[in-house]
Amino acid sequence: MGDSKRKRGPKPKTPAAEDTNITTMDIQYTNPTTANDAVSVPANETATDPSSSQPSRRGRGRPRKTEKLNIAASPERRSLRHADQNGDGGHALAVVSEPPLMVPSWENVARVVPAMEAVVKVFCVHTEPNLSLPWQRKRQYSSSSSGFVIGGRRVLTNAHSVEHHTQVKLKKRGSETKYLATVLAIGTECDIAMLTVSDDEFWEGVSPVEFGELPALQDAVTVVGYPIGGDTISVTSGVVSRMEILSYVHGSTELLGLQIDAAINSGNSGGPAFNDKGKCVGIAFQSLKHEDVENIGYVIPTPVIMHFIQDYEKNGEYTGFPVIGVEWQKMENPDLRTSIGMRTDQKGVRIRRIEPTAPESHVLKPSDIILSFDGVNIANDGTVPFRHGERIGFSYLVSQKYTGDNALVKVLRNSEILEYNIKLSTHKRLIPAHINGKPPSYYIIAGFVFAAVSVPYLRSEYGKDYEFDAPVKLLDKHLHSMAQSIDEQLVVVSQVLVADINIGYEDIVNTQVLAFNGKPVNNLKKLASMVENCDDEYLKFDLEYDQMVVLQTKTAKAATLDILLTHCIPSAMSDDLKS
Fold this sequence. Notes:
By secondary structure, this protein is of the alpha+beta class. The protein is built from twelve helices and 30 strands. Helix 1 (75-85) packs antiparallel against helix 2 (89-95). The longest helix is centred in the middle third of the chain and has 14 residues, at 302-315.
């Protein structure tokens, strides 16, 4: 029996590290050295404007009344039936002919998305800092993505579309002119950026996009943008297939997100997703790349978008999404609940650790049970009611707040219910996920290059798989350590620029600096200040792994100038450390 089955060859295997890849690299790069591979777009999924073949609308999502052809109600068919009933059917057939079926024109299809004229193409020139050589920048490159016009003469796109920008230009649909744009705000966590154009000509004939409500599952969505595969505007359609707290790859955070089955390709970043009423319900921003899946894209929903816009309007800048600075544990085990003193009608999550820099660290304690947040009860699995028949992580409630807002938290401590009014703030990480567009900090003495560790730094040193290749102790601090103060940094000896004075120390790479002359090193600025003002005979650096570096003070400072000249380094420290 087994021989009767048709044998199929094995599928080609991919490395384990690349099996699942959620990526925000849906910018279309125009620099030859960073160009993406060509992507084939099925003709039945994408309609390009203006002279391509007529797009076919598949019956997905809710049917649209404007596209329904009701032949039985046409006057010609009614005349045919009336003549047949009177016995004059033969004459009627000779006089009245069946009209040809009209194929929907592009104008009829475009009418479903009335704000398509508000979708623009974003051209950006990027110049990224070189975190491994922090005194210089990398070679610039260009990219193209999508955006759309909103009220107040503003344009929204993705944050990663304009990250490390040196020039941003916008082009309207059907226009040959590129207009210089100014970046007003970049929301790294939510992956949204706000732009504006000073030229009044850009705003002529453009109506801003209107935002719709949060869609339901199976609601039809249409993604509009300028993806790879052509220069004109492109439309892909699908439905909302999932709604939950998602991991935002660029922002290294978790916020509400929509999963759709419409194709999101390189260049779609920043493009709007419209519902069947032509209102914007999200921004395309990332997609899932995996050999076993296809057409899984992710959209930033309107609650996150409106939070970003209102945050900017309220504060004049982007302040971020607040968090509750605790690590918590599920309370699904009945023995665990009983041992802590929870009644059968009580539900919540247990606090494991509290960030020392969080305002709530003064009132909350480890092993407290968070019962509710702002009056909403939290289940034992950490979820709260979302919509009819749906639940979502309670971090969604926190993300709806703004930095500096207060929230009422009810906790169970020693079988006693307590209520605290806590102030919410942004997350302070020992190893930050971003440098927020700022030049990297560095300090050089006697060829020793000191730097503060960040996720971009780890990615620069060890590549995109830094979570596997970086030193274990750095990864442990990245994943588990908490900052003890607002200004605390993880300072390392990045590398040693070889010179006569540092013989024997050449192999020290990415090793944490614990103390200088017996004093703890909390951040890079403090280390630079202590070294520059040191009058001791020796400079003594205590490093991790019980290593020690000792240099004569006068000789080290004198040798620094020669080393800077040899390596064409303009200054011994970055500008932010000089102030």
